[in-house]
């Protein structure tokens, strides 16, 4: 047998942030969905200096749980503990070790893919001692080798303008999604990979997080939720359609949110004297998972079918969220919708201004596509920044005084 071919490493936006955190904090906790590249990233940056230990194998886990002090003396810092959620019992002893040498940075690098349980344990044990960072699946910037490129509205940041992909290439990318394994192994069967991901990872995480007895019912819930992606989420209607209690729907949504499978987008409230819609929207974090759960297999069907707009909107939203999260910033992203039906798909609160963004499926921008942004600008006056109508084509042009049409690759 010859050597295995070397898999290409994809540079991540988070690299500079995590390096800085390792220089400044005794511990760094890297969370995110399974398979988002956490282990690869830590090994790539730190394996020369840190010992690597996975806590997933049952024998390693058993050793860590039965004798935490002995285990930590066997794997002394600096060390990477992968999948710390399998042995949260280690955390108080890691705290003890850190407190023995508080000024030494980068002692313990921990990864975990279950936000809820992990964060409870971490905040109890490592408060003030750990930087907590998130790694989501690959962004378009990372896939296109421009991980540090800024968002269009950010002043003074590094900006790159990439060539717009063909519609076919864009939609093929949406079907594949952002998990690194599918990007570094382009010949992988996408359907099989996502089927295995949903089966193995979601169900394993779900089982651990909340006692969900009926996994068949949970699968139905996943598919029903995917069909409502990017829509206002009516919990009562969803529970009625599935024949389950509203409280069960809420519990299952929180499971998906805490294992990073969905983003809940909330409406933006500001005192503009209008009644606003209070219902949130739900988006799947990964486009490939979304397409798999809604039964989409080919680019043309995905683009032309009833889910086309929702997929495009998810792609734009997740590109924005990943750009912030992968710089260690909590994104302030919302949607805006009045009871009179005026709306903007995505709104980014930059701290100084509010940036309205409309997402359109047509590659031919028209003035009428900016109506929501015009209403938004009237409502918010000087707080409203210039808006963008993001589309899958290659055209970039002004749409009146308040908005610019922008290809997705230019975001």
Major β-sheet annotation: 6 strands, mixed
Number of helices: 17
Estimated share of beta-strand residues: 5-15%
Mean pLDDT: 90
Number of domains: 2
Write down the Rg. 22 Å
Describe what this molecule looks like in 3D.
There is one protein chain. With 411 residues, this protein is of the alpha/beta class. The chain folds into two domains: 120 residues, Rossmann fold (3-Layer(aba) Sandwich); 271 residues, no CATH class. 41% of the residues lie in helices and 15% in strands. It is built from 17 helices and 13 strands. α3 crosses α4, α5 runs parallel beside α6 and α8 crosses α14. The longest helix has 20 residues. The N terminus is likely disordered.
How are the elements arranged and paired?
Layout: H1 15-24, E1 27-31, H2 38-46, E2 51-54, H3 58-66, H4 68-74, E3 79-82, H5 91-99, E4 108-112, H6 115-126, E5 130-134, H7 140-143, H8 167-176, H9 180-184, H10 190-209, H11 215-227, H12 235-242, H13 246-258, E6 262-265, E7 281-284, H14 287-293, H15 299-304, H16 308-325, E8 333-337, E9 343-349, E10 354-359, H17 371-380, E11 387-391, E12 397-398, E13 403-407
Parallel strand pairs: 1-4, 1-5, 2-3, 3-4, 10-11, 11-13
Antiparallel strand pairs: 6-7, 8-9, 9-10, 12-13
Helix pairs in contact: 3-4, 5-6, 8-14, 12-13
